[in-house]
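idk why but the lab printer keeps eating my pages so im just putting this in chat instead. protein + G3I:
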Amino acid sequence: GTTLGASAAEKGRYFGAAVAAHKLGDSTYVGILNREFNMVTPENEMKIDATEPNQNQFTFGNADRIVNHATSRGMRVRGHTLAWHSQQPGWMQNMSGSALRQAMLNHVTRVASYYRGKIHSWDVVNEAFADGSSGARRDSNLQRTGNDWIEAAFRAARAADPNAKLCYNDYNTDDWTHAKTQAVYRMVQDFKNRGVPIDCVGLQSHFNNNSPYPSNYRTTLSSFAALGVDVQITELDIEGASPTTYGNVVKDCLAVARCNGITVWGIRDSDSWRASQNPLLFNNSGGKKPAYDAVLSALNSG
Ligand code: G3I
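predcted complex ->
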């Protein structure tokens, strides 16, 4: 293929980008999006603060703009994210206990129902494990509603949209030896053993000098896949955009049958949440960087 999306499709994968609704009027941005990508993730527009700014008042305008842009052009959508400790609206931040549990489940049900049939994969729960060596859950208002909050969210999402793949998504879960990776692995294993509905694990894969691409990344992908879930690289960016590293990430995904696809967290460097690291595949003018060529070549190899 001659584009990221077409080349990934030839390998039975997708290639996606995080998209911001307020950039859909930028012709350079939209030109690259429409040419190169066949999956989109709303960068912020489906988060809880965006979709339920007041309790039980749902707003889908910006998310719909992205979904409509994508689906009218044959691109698919990753939903991000139904339950998260961060970017909660003020009303939710101040809740606890059974009221919060009910509000969280209501949010999952309402948002997943609204988009039923339109979402390829949902990040049902995002970033629920602690950093560091504990392997523990992250402390949050959601976690304090009971350790079963994650499985409750997955069950609600399955009931609301039975055909979406339901993913657990996190960062710093790329290195197989990392305690956080092992903790997520054990949770997914437990969910599969007990029949909790989970279909995929998202590895955000924000690589930088503090958390570099690990040499055992392929082992992480294949180990999760061996549990009977798909694996998706959901928020890829690499400080400095080393072509070699980008190419290795793609090769690792292609080596694992259940690695469905790769999403980069933005289009041009200037679109990145870490713009100063120049971590993406296109420069600020929209030109292809050497990392782009490495990714395209890796997608077309083998
Ligand atoms: O929309 C407001 C705007 O009205 C206001 O003028 C402006 C002033 O600061 O802020 C705007 O909101 C910002 C929003 O991005 C949209 O640009 C928020 O302050 C800012 O916090 C928010 O940052 C996002 C961040 O998640 C929040 O946690 C980033 O764009 C987004 O790339 C980032 O994405 C996360 C994933 O969801 C989860 N994994 C990590 C990843 C990177 O942090």
